Amino acid sequence: MAVTKDSKRGTWTVQCWYRDWQNIRKKKTKRGFSSRKNALDWERNFLAQNNGSPTMTFGDFYKLYEQDIRPRLRRNTWETKEHLIRKKILPYFEDRQLNEITGSDVLKWESVLIKEKTSTGLPYSQTYLRTIANQLSAMFNHAVKHYNLPSNPVWKTGKMGAKQAGEMQFWTKEEYLTFADSMMDKPRSFLAFEILYWTGIRVGELLALTPADFDFERKLLSITKSYQRIRGEDVITPPKTPKSVRHIALSSFLLDEVLDYLKYNPGIDVCDRIFPFTRSSLHHEMDRGSKETSVKRIRVHDLRHSHVSLLIEMNFSALAIADRMGHESVNITLNYAHLFPNKQVDMASALDAERGN
User: In which domain, by residue range, is 13 found?
Assistant: First the structure.
């Protein structure tokens, strides 16, 4: 390490050695400091930041990140991540040295995305912006944990967007029944929506169902897989999370509807998909039914919210609902807390009665 003065220019120069994240010894030279103190301060900060920290470009780090993360994820989960990274993150950070990206750089990147528009001319939703920010933060966290990055710059700036959308959309039972009447002319569509509404399973779980998943004697539906359409290929994967593998108790009327459908469609083998179409078909049918009945249009996924709201209205507990829905934690179910009945008045009355005894 050396700090020297250039007598001709009157400035100071630093030369120092450091080891990168691969333990390779490298030399760094920095010129143009106005004082010896400034040069020493820079040297101290540089060594603290760079000894053992990843000096690779963000683009090269992404290759390591893919090697580390991709084998641990479902194919469709990784491809969703990959799309976000390639479209929204790499164009801005790809050529930057990983350990030189600062909180200020993250803020500038966020400002760019906040101003971007969708193909329809609308700004990105707050939840989509949060998803992108979470992905960038996850990559920096991985670098901190496994590649000696000193800190995650997103920690200093916070994350753009919002964790949840403003208002949760769902149908009441009356709205669903009105919609379901319009599906009666297409038995396959009718049964698909019946299962979605009365069980609350995910769309991917529905589209992976086979007759073998129904235990008609025990009145149970086994959720063990999920369907995805990826790059023109039908792909069956495990469900979203380990907790998603579950058995759902079915009502008698729904089992009868499934039996009737299979009876009139004998060509469906025990291991065939009952609903051999993609999500887009359900979206199309949702559009059709909403227009015919004037029931407000919600997303197909919102039928899952509708099932939860129905169970809450029927006074089932958050724990029981979480188990049926395959939520990884009861905390996810508590996102619906605003729908649960407020028991405060009942509690106060009960305490009055208890005090009087």
Answer: 2-50
